[in-house]
Amino acid sequence: MNNNNSQVAVQQKSVSDIMAMPAMVSKLNAVWGDPAIAASFSSSLISLVNGNPNLRKCDAMSVVGGAMVAATLQLSVVPTLGQCYLIPYGKQAQVQVGYLGILQLCQRSGQFSKIIAVPVHKGELVSGDEFNEDWVFDKSKKESDEVIGYYAKFKLINGFEKAAYWTKAQVDAHAKRYSQAYAKGFTSPWKTNFDEMCCKTVLKSILKYAPKSIAMQNLLKFDQAVVKTNSNDVEELTIDSFTPDYVDNEGTKAQITEAAAAAAGVQDAQAEEVK
Q: pTM of the prediction?
């Protein structure tokens, strides 16, 4: 394929046109390992874009880039499945991994014996010790459907545990700091799937202490980012050709960097422990 012709062609094509290109079909087949699943993913993406006027206004390559990150993680972009979302942000599409997408990646890693993230209703919190990460809940004491906070916990197969409880006010403050879409009331998963996003937020706060598979590292890198590519050649589109641009809020960049650094520290410590 002539690179110059390919680049011009991609720049002038819509999302559906790009997804129909033989090179893209081949790329998706390789990523998913099954042509039928790859075709279903492509069809879902095209339906998503066609049904969302704001996504249609986005730069096609930002949509495709976000979709390719989802595909590389083997997560669906169908919003109702809650695995991965493509969010219009001006003329760019932002990729956001959903709570259920994070659970999928954790389960696939084979490192977790238990992982949960749930809303806590009024009356259910009996006692709590943040320093010892020891909270006691009793669902039988639930007083109403009012959510007062969110609890997340994981346990690794080697016995290591981590837990966190955030009040609803804490999650709200965090979301306003790291998401302009939430702070300004724009349509996003924060508006359509609020409790799910709150659960995800608290869960991500403790996952930086868990082992990181390549998939989890990519999740931390690209979650809440516009996916930029240094190539307009479809044949060259790989996860390594993408870079994240945290257009939603600069605070997110600092958060991701901090999480990545913490993850590296945990992995080094675990490696020393194995030795």
A: 0.73
